[in-house]
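Give me the fold.
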Amino acid sequence: MLPQISYLQFHIVFLLPATLVLAASAMAIRPEGNSVRSNDRGHIYWLVVVALMLVALLYTTPWDNYLIARGVWEYGEGRVLRTVGHAPIEEYLFILVQPLMTAFWLAQLPLREGWPNVSQQLRPVPRLIGCTTGVLVGCIGLYCLQGLDTFYLGAILVWAAPVLTLQWTVGPCQLLYHYRVVLFGTLVPTIYLWGADRVAIAVGIWTLADTYTTGITLAGLPIEEAIFFFVTNLFVVQGLILYRWVITRWA
């Protein structure tokens, strides 16, 4: 029989140690040469991280509360401290901690030297492709919302589309130029959170409703959850790389 673990204990076991280790590593080890923290002008990077955390909280809270109220997922009895709105306070903490973890990890990765030249940055075609791709994500999401078993997937894609469209329209060349850091910076925390989420579902901290999910899994993890953690970490990584580009231009 699996042990009963509360949502707070989940934070203590999975999020707190990982965040502390990444924080210590980020402070102790700075990559040689170019990085998202290079020339950050007095810890501006960390101020931007805090701003991203607050934006994530404000952007995700209404969406999160709506899906809980709709019954897309629910929490095990006695697993949460208390709720604010429809979401437990541990959920809000998760929304804040995840971008912080990813930012600590990203801070240790070296970027390629330089950026695309001005003529490449101003080309309209990459921006058009980026914008179109982001809009397409939203359209697929709207289509998925029409079915019950694809409702959660559609909700994720519609929620993600505005952010992806903005990032892929503003800086497609910059993100492609640093695609290795985008991928590596996104996948490592994503895979870790996939494992943590898989455990949380297995021990009953939260349960996804069969009605609103496709039933497709990735190593036992619902595909919707896998996509959610991937896109949320992608938001953070792309946002911080674009911040670094803006700082470079100002400098």
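The chain has a mean pLDDT of 92.
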